[in-house]
Write a structure and sequence with these properties.
The complex is a heterotrimer of chains A (114), B (159) and C (522). Chain B is an all-alpha fold and 159 residues long. Chain B is built from five helices and no strands. In chain B, helix 1 runs antiparallel to helix 2, helix 2 packs parallel to helix 5 and helix 4 runs antiparallel to helix 5. Chain C is globular, with a radius of gyration of 22 Å. Chain C is built from 20 helices and two strands.
Chain lengths: 114, 159, 522
């Protein structure tokens, strides 16, 4: 049970993110939802890489050579970097939209339809 | 954003800035030994610049650091990164080969195992790439915030 | 020279990346130097792509490992026989996609060098174009699931920024926001799938995972996630709503390449169905899911296209509709190959038709979007109600548009006909109803393009476009290359199919070959 606790948290985070994306009517809040989704996925990857009673792969602090392979940590790091770039891009676009439309309500940001 | 904060905040920010930058460079340089690395260190340094932007007037900040400088940081970091990766090809290896590792000389020492204080002169091209990424990220993140701030304060300017 | 040839797959992404990072530096030296630099870089990377493709078609699958000292060192000795490094796996299917990206990539750069002349912020624009090209090359060439995710995100971020590039009173930013948000959600779903596979098989390498695939419950969840994410990115119908917005608002040259980028996602979809889960999933079920998505895309795409007033939006809906043909062909291929009562040749034929349509679509759709770009460049509007009589002054553009329009409608002797015929023939034997729907959609496509052609080029000269000039030479050259290919592929379809499409189809079917190419027959 305790082993699966991280995955439960992951599921809750991802579902909260999806809920925010689908049901919030504000662009900034939708972006918060996307960010929440990203955090959920990152947490999922990190949780996958955890091994009980093992040694973290830090060369200066590891007492022996048997260390955990840090693949998922590398993946998470890459995904965080990509997440930062995406977030910056999305927020810049919302700023541009706000400058011209004076609103961030999705019901009013609808010049492209049909 | 155009108002500056109180004198206490400004002074604290000025002092903190130096420590943040030093800590950021520590993370960048120890990237191949400890958790951390170019991106994290660069992000820490960028928070130092962002602290200055928040504490002071934007115009004051632009008087100390030019946008061009951050662009140059970003660009030179990227070029250093891809250049290090590409340098392996003329040397007869494949793209991204760690050609400095174990060769002696700069960053060429073998990584010692066991608990140790950390030897910077190891790991081949990885520290170089960490430094490159660190420079790139500090430029990139700072310039994003800079553009966003100037977008808020001045609607005519911006990207 | 040998070193260069060994490193061609690495240079494929190294050249555009280096080019992208040096572009801001060189734009300080002046516009013409920057333009020349961008052209040289894309030209070199296209040559690289074509060379890699020809090498693959001659000698078989290339496996390129990053960060090793010799080419043959795919599997590190201390890893227990697992390729843990990042690899590029290029088999004839990847080579086929590389050729498409190489041709269209060069043409769009040539086009945008002259179409962007009057706009500001060009160094950022070209940096992003080169990043987009690098991302698409990476998506096509990579043999590693996580690496695919990274390149997917590179191409979608660069694509989203380019969609929003011409802010256009915030409307383009709206389209870009939609594209970026959708790509991010899709990318995250893909990453969850990658995590699920990594948790079970301890590898990110496609060949290794395909080799170890057990099809547990988690694998099926991962499959659904991959399928959703990639179908979203390629613009199949239930998830198509970003396509018309972003295709219409992006600069035209970029739209032409966004089509290629969607098709790289389509390629990944096929790779997941055929290779990653090769022989494990139920081909009939998945085949029918793909067929239904294809039919829906075809029909809804074309019906939405007919009432459009904006020429690029109309073409974007047609892109959705044409994606349906590819899905139909490959879906029928997947379903028929497993069927016991139909002969294998029907499945192979349908698969070839679907793949050939990918190439043809990239070329004629690129041509059509570039002609729309010329109209936009010269007349400043995309509204069909305001355009008219352009045929008097823009003869070449008219000819190119006509070639593209006839090709998309599937009229002989253009390339759209060749691939659609293959799809019709095989689909009819599989299920006649599907073939009938495909033909009806084709007729509707023709009707819609006749309307566009008439309202843009025919009729008397309008006073506001009295002195409209023909497109500048670089734009004409870019369109000319694509138009010549449309005609050539239409006249000699059999040769193209034999040389490029058939190896790609058989590489896609033969997942064992893919696995053994990476694992060395293990």
């Amino acid at each position: 049970m305790i082993d699966n606790l991280p995955f439960l948290v992951v599921a809750i985070t991802i579902l909260l993110g999806l809920y925010t994306i689908l049901f919030r009517k504000d662009l900034i809040k939708m972006i918060m939802g996307i960010s929440l989704l990203e955090s959920g996925v990152n947490l999922f990857l990190i949780a996958l890489g955890y091994r009980w009673d093992s040694i973290a792969p830090i060369f200066t602090g590891a007492p022996s050579l048997a260390m955990v392979m840090p693949t998922v940590q590398a993946l998470t790091l890459t995904s965080i970097v990509i997440g930062v770039a995406t977030l910056a891009l999305l927020l810049s676009m919302v700023m541009v939209i706000y400058r011209y439309y004076r609103t961030t309500d999705v019901r009013e940001v609808t010049k492209l339809q049909g | 954003m155009s108002d500056c904060m109180s004198k206490i905040i400004r002074t604290t920010a000025d002092i903190m800035f130096m420590f943040i930058v030093v800590f950021g460079f520590y993370i960048v340089l120890h990237g191949h030994l400890t958790p951390g690395g170019g991106f994290q260190g660069g992000a820490v340094i960028a928070t130092g610049f962002i602290l200055l932007i928040v504490a002071h007037k934007l115009d004051d900040f632009l008087g100390w650091f030019k946008k061009k400088a951050f662009q140059n940081f970003e660009m030179s970091g990227l070029i250093l990164f891809i250049g290090t990766a590409l340098a392996a090809i003329p040397l007869g290896y494949l793209f991204f080969m760690n050609f400095l590792s174990g060769a002696g000389g700069l960053f060429g020492q073998v990584v010692p195992y066991g608990v140790n204080p950390g030897f910077l002169n190891t790991a081949g091209t990885i520290p170089i790439m960490n430094i490159a990424v660190g420079i790139e990220v500090l430029g990139g993140l700072s310039i994003i915030i800079l553009y966003m701030t100037s977008g808020i304060s001045n609607h005519e300017e911006g990207e | 020279m040998d070193i260069l040839f060994d490193n061609l797959p690495g240079l494929l992404i190294a050249i555009p990346l280096l080019g992208a990072f040096l572009t801001p530096l060189l734009s300080r030296a002046g516009d013409s130097i920057r333009n020349a630099w961008v052209l040289i870089v894309t030209g070199l990377s296209s040559v690289c792509g074509l060379l890699v493709a020809s090498q693959v078609l001659e000698t078989g699958t290339i496996v390129y490992t990053f960060g090793v000292n010799t080419v043959s060192n795919i599997i590190p000795p201390d890893s227990g026989g697992i390729p843990i490094r990042i690899i590029f796996t290029i088999d004839p299917m990847n080579a086929f996609m590389l050729i498409i990206a190489a041709i269209v990539g060069f043409c769009i750069t040539l086009f945008s060098v002259s179409s962007m002349e009057r706009l500001s912020g060009k160094d950022g624009f070209f940096t992003l174009v080169l990043l987009l090209i690098a991302g698409v090359y990476g998506m096509i060439a990579t043999g590693d699931l996580f690496n695919f995710f990274v390149f997917l995100e590179i191409s979608s971020l660069a694509g989203a920024a380019l969609v929003a590039y011409r802010i256009d009173k915030g409307v383009a930013a709206e389209a870009g926001l939609k594209y970026a948000a959708l790509s991010t959600i899709g990318g995250m779903l893909f990453l969850v799938g990658v995590g699920l596979l990594f948790a079970q098989y301890n590898s990110l390498n496609m060949a290794v995972i395909a080799d170890r695939m057990q099809l547990t419950g988690l694998d099926i969840i991962a499959f659904v996630l991959f399928f959703t994410a990639l179908a979203m990115k390629c613009g199949a119908v239930p998830m198509h709503f970003w396509t018309p917005d972003s295709y219409a608002m992006a600069p035209s040259a970029i739209t032409a390449f966004l089509v290629v980028s969607s098709q790289a996602s389509l390629y990944a979809l096929f790779r997941v169905c055929f290779t990653l889960y090769g022989g494990q999933i139920n081909p009939l079920t998945v085949g029918w899911v793909i067929i239904i998505l294809g039919i829906l895309s075809m029909f809804i795409g074309v019906t939405m296209a007919i009432p459009q007033k904006d020429v690029k939006r109309l073409m974007a809906y047609h892109a959705v509709s044409q994606t349906g043909y590819m899905l139909l062909g490959v879906g029928v291929g997947l379903a028929a190959l497993s069927s016991t009562c139909l002969s294998q040749s029907i499945g192979v034929m349908a698969l070839k038709g679907g793949l050939f349509h990918i190439m043809n679509h990239a070329i004629y759709k690129g041509l059509l979007f570039l002609t729309a770009g010329v109209i936009m460049y010269r007349c400043g509007t995309r509204n069909l109600n305001q355009l008219g009589g352009l045929g008097h002054n823009m003869k070449w553009t008219m000819v190119f548009f006509m070639i593209g329009a006839l090709a998309i409608a599937g009229i002989p002797p253009f390339n759209g006909f060749a691939s659609k015929l293959m799809i019709y023939e095989s689909t009819f034997l599989f299920n006649p109803l599907l073939a009938v729907i495909a033909m009806v959609v084709s007729i509707l496509t023709l009707a819609s393009f006749v309307k566009v052609f008439h309202s843009m080029f025919m009729g008397p000269k309008l006073p506001e476009y009295e002195n409209v000039k023909e497109a500048p030479t670089p734009m004409l050259i870019a369109m000319g290359i694509l138009a010549i290919l449309v005609v050539l592929f239409g006249i000699f379809p059999q040769q193209v199919v034999d040389a490029l499409v058939a190896p790609a189809a058989s590489a896609l079917i033969d997942y064992q070959g893919y696995i053994s190419a990476v694992l060395g027959g293990a």
